[in-house]
């Protein structure tokens, strides 16, 4: 393990030491954990990006560069004309 030297404002250093003490750890351990978390996040993001690119490459769906989404096509399977769902409300009592 390598040592590094940091320049930190005294007020921040004091607060950070108190934070570490409350959690029963050292400032050194907090810095190591934080840096490991930052590096790990970047690695997870890169792994997710690679996975998405792989899924895109393997996908059989191709719309083409000039394809424009059409609202009717997007919602065609979700929307029913009123006459096709008339039986949905048949269980209601009318007054």
Secondary-structure content class: mainly alpha
Rounded average pLDDT? 83
Helix % is 40-55%
Query: Could you tell me the radius of gyration in angstroms?
Result: 29 Å
Number of strands: 0
How far apart the termini lie comes to 80 Å
Strand count, sense and closure of the main sheet?
none
Strand residue percentage: under 5%
Oligomer: single chain
Count the helices. How many? 3
What is the N-to-C succession of helices and strands? HHH
Tell me what you see in this structure.
The termini are far apart. With 95 residues, this protein is an all-alpha fold. It has helices at residues 10-22, 27-58, 71-75. The protein is elongated and about 65 Å long. The model has no long low-confidence stretch (mean pLDDT 83). The protein contains three helices and no strands.
């Amino acid at each position: 393990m390598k040592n590094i030297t940091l320049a930190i404002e005294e007020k921040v250093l004091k607060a950070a030491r108190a934070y570490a003490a409350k959690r029963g750890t050292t400032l050194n351990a907090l810095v190591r954990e934080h840096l490991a978390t930052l590096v790990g996040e970047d690695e997870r993001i890169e792994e997710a990006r690679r996975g998405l690119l792989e899924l895109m490459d393997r996908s059989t769906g191709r719309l083409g560069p000039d394809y424009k989404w059409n609202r009717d096509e997007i919602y065609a399977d979700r929307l029913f004309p009123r006459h096709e769902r008339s039986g949905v409300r048949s269980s209601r009592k009318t007054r």
